[in-house]
Amino acid sequence: MGYKRYAVYFGPRPNEPLHDFGKSWFGTDPETGASLPTSPLPGYSEDTHSTIIKAPRHYALHGTLKPPFVLADGTEYDALKQAVSDLAVTLSSVTLSPLYLKDLSGFLALCPAEPSPSLRIVAGRCVAELDQFRRPASEGEIEKRRAAGLTPDQDANLLRWGYPYVLDDFRFHITLTSRLQEMDRQAVAAALGPRMSHILTAPTLLQDLCIYGEPDDGSPFRIVARIPLG
């Protein structure tokens, strides 16, 4: 299978509670790319659930370290994988504080309760040290990002790194929903809390750099390589 884009993400390991939740929430297994039944919240139909998860489902459950990119001309996946492996061996695992549900500009996402300097270092090194493999953003992509409204620093990030929310503007999060109206967000958050209670009370471990690929057939991103840290 060919891939249109790659990304370096945090992905919980198989059989971890967050991984199992992601499979049932999004109806896709990022380890294999297999489509699975979803498990809607009580009182929600399959169709409504599909609308709730429509935007983030394509990217599978993940936390962004280096955002999606097209391989630069003259580079290839094997070299990218080797570079990620070389980087991973220099990094240590990161323990995040417990996650909580947060409203991020209309999206519901999981965020650490406390910032992690170690995680910021991991993400920053992924952005900078793997950038040789990223094809520069097109003018159309730049203008699309700018339409959302960016600070001067975010605009500088966009031009230099192809994405506005990196380095000092990096905020680790795991997106769970599309943008929802306020009442819908509140209802979904209230129903999600009990389902995720066992996840929200435990630390989250970042133990790997995961290379995700976006298949050419338009199906959701999947993990093409999982590389342990350290």
Model description:
The chain is an alpha+beta fold. It has one domain: Cyclic Phosphodiesterase, Chain: A (Alpha-Beta Complex), CATH 3.90.1140. The chain has helices at residues 17-26, 46-57, 77-88, 117-129, 139-146, 152-161, 182-195, 197-200; strands spanning 3-10, 63-69, 94-96, 99-104, 107-112, 174-175, 204-206, 208-215, 222-228. Strands 2-1-8-9 form a four-stranded antiparallel sheet. The protein has a three-stranded antiparallel sheet with strand order 4-5-6, with helices on one face. Strands 3-7 form a two-stranded antiparallel sheet. It is globular and about 50 Å long. The model has no long low-confidence stretch (mean pLDDT 96).
The average pLDDT value, as a whole number, equals 96
What is the CA-CA span between the terminal residues?
A: 29 Å
The CATH homologous superfamily: Cyclic phosphodiesterase
**Order of strands in the sheet with the most strands?**
2-1-8-9
Judging from the principal axes of the Cα atoms, what is the shape? globular
Poorly predicted parts = none
CATH first level: Alpha Beta
Alpha plus pi helix count: 8
What is the domain tally? 1
Strand count, sense and closure of the main sheet? Answer: 4 strands, antiparallel
Q: Tell how many strands the DSSP assignment holds.
A: 9
CATH topology group: Cyclic Phosphodiesterase, Chain: A
Named CATH architecture: Alpha-Beta Complex
Our estimate of the beta-strand percent is 15-25%
Radius of gyration: 17 Å
Helix content: 25-40%
Category from helices, strands and their pairing? alpha+beta
Order of helices and strands: EHHEHEEEHHHEHHEEE
